Amino acid sequence: MRMLSVNSLIVALLLSLGQLMAQKSQVVNSTIRQVTIYRNGAEVTREISVSLDEGTHELIFKGLSGSLDKESIQLSGLADLTVLSVVPKMNYNQEEGKSKTVKQLEAKSEAVKEKIAFERGMEQIYKQEEEMLIKNQQLGGDKVVVKTLELKEAVEFQRKKLIEVLQKKLETSNNIKRWDDSLKVIGKELSPLITDSQKATIDIIVTVSSKKADQVKLELSYYVADAGWYPSYDAKLTDLNSPLSLQFKAGMFQYSGEDWKKVKLTLSTANPRDKVLSPLLKTWYWGYPNDYSQYQATPTDNLPGEKNISEVSGFVKDSENRPLPGVTVIIEGTNVGTATDANGFYQLAIPINLAPTQRFLHFSFIGYKTQSKPIVNRRIDTNLQEDLHALEEVVVVGYGGNARNKLGGRTAGVGISKNESIELNTNEREAPASVTYEIPMDYTLLSDGKTYAVNLKTEQIAGSYYEYLAVPKVRQEVFLNAYLPSWTNLNLLPGDVNLYLENNYVGKTRLDPAYAPDTLSLSFGVDKAVSVRREQVKSYTKKQFLGGSVTENRTYRIALRNTKKIPIRIVVKDQYPLARSKDIEVFDKSASDAKVEENTGELTWNLMLPAGESKELNLRYSVKYPKNGYRAGE
Question: In this structure, how many other beta carbons lie within 10 angstroms of the beta carbon of residue 295?
Fold first, then answer.
């Protein structure tokens, strides 16, 4: 029996070994097919088609985004496959990942640095030789008389040696400059190429068991944090007889390390970073904390702030103010970077959701000391100092931004400038807790941190109307406002609203639906075609001193004028003073046709003012107060 157990064990071990030997490992080529961009982050879906024999297979997805969430990895389309394991593996600066060209350039760089070190050593030797010759210019001693012939020979010898040393110094200096230039050329070539081998990536190793030989299609999906989108709007008022046009726009960005080329793109209003716990009450004892902070949602809207720097540019030069081409400029802790051009110029987009701790630029180049500068201005210039003592220890952190910079704002085969956007007819779908917008064309979004704008849809707001508002006591100008009673049906999100009046940009406002009233209003600024003037009618203003009190009678005239060719609706507001004590009395109040709010003293006139006509409003009141106090002005 004991012998049988040992034999059984040996057989089991042999079977296990056979299974391991039968396991086949292959690197699969996957393509990004679909991306869903959330307010913060994105879900990336890759697809592969692979032939599998019966047995166990190890499928390796290489070079995926280093920012992907390992817990979010999903595999679908399995059919007759059984997943045995999914193992993510982080890669940093793998030596074997370097291309042959990179290794050749690095070898050239080392050789050139050795030549520079040698030439600098020779430069020191010639300098010392020159110092020795100068010190030995005095022949004999002070009391030694040197013959003329000997002096002539000595001077000629000295001159000859000094000229030789000078020539050697100049030759060495030229050699150093020449090798320095060669090192810069190598650095310019190396910076774009070395990025991929130094960038953190993730390999996902999926082990599956296949029951039969088959051609299978699989989908691998995962969540990346370095992406997002934010909404904005264009509100356009063409004329007072047409409904307000509201254009929904999206600003999309990503710097995940993967370029999304010609993918199916969907924008979702969902936010995976929001807390998903349903709140539950717990027993609360008086005098003890009643903490529910775990349920509080963290504000994560990536709305660009007014002071946020979205783009930075500048020049990189050496200590003698000569431009340095090929210098790597990278944002700390990200894959967003670029390289300087032939003039030492760089330009870099700053992701809007970048954390304050990452708002630093790193400048690095072969043979120069690395610099770090905070992103506090839109223009950042720098001068790199040559690293004379550590040429062989310089680590190049490249990005390869030149090729990407040439793409500029080119997405999905359509060229756009910085302030333009692409008009798309998106498919809007409302889910139980979010809204999605499906872009109906294959779209390209590069991993450069830039914001790419698209127009999602345009709505002609039914029921919108316009009113003029005047508060002449505060400002003697008339403002045009648009009102949207049915805005709650528009699925609006917090964002900036660009205001256009008759196709002219008039300003910007901020929209936050969470704090908006039942009727949303947008102000389009002052309309000079409608005027208002408020003045005190002095002939009807007088003071009366009776006993210990003073009585003031005040009268004001408000003049309105409409020079437009159409009638307008206008609201005029003013106010009566209120009495804070029994010693003060406000009486004899008169404001014909005005609605009075007794609690606040606010007066409101709602008028229709015909085209080309004027109207006058009158306001009168009296105030009685003690002679020794309570005097108040306008």
Answer: 11
Give the chain's mean pLDDT.
80
Record the tokens describing residue 501, joined without a space.
């009046």
User: Which amino acid would we find at residue 74?
Assistant: Q
Q: Round the CA-based radius of gyration of the chain to a whole number and report it.
A: 39
CB 46 within 8 A of CB 220: yes
d(CA 387, CA 393): 9
Residue 576 to residue 583: CA distance in whole angstroms: 17
How far is 486 from 509, CA to CA, in rounded Å?
Answer: 19
CA quadruple 436, 437, 438, 442: dihedral, nearest 10: -130
Measured in residues, the chain has a length of 634
- Where residue 310 falls among pLDDT bands split at 50, 70, 90? confident
d(CA 455, CA 233): 9
What's at 633, amino acid-wise? G
What span, in angstroms and rounded, lies between the C-alpha atoms of 594 and 424?
48
pLDDT tens column, 523-577: 999 999 999 999 998 765 566 666 778 888 899 999 999 999 999 999 999 999 9
Read off the pLDDT of residues 609-619 as tens digits, 9 standing for 90 and up.
999 999 999 99
Is 318 within 8 Å of 324 (Cβ atoms)? Answer: yes
Whole-prediction pTM value? 0.67
DSSP 157-194: HHHHHHHHHHHHHHHHHHHHHHHHHHHHHHHHHHHHHH
> What Cα–Cα distance (Å) separates residue 109 from each residue in 314, 446, 542?
27, 31, 93
- Asked if residue 308 lies in contact with residue 283, where contact means CB atoms within 8 angstroms, the answer is no
Task: Give the whole-angstrom CA distance, residue 402 versus residue 320.
Answer: 25
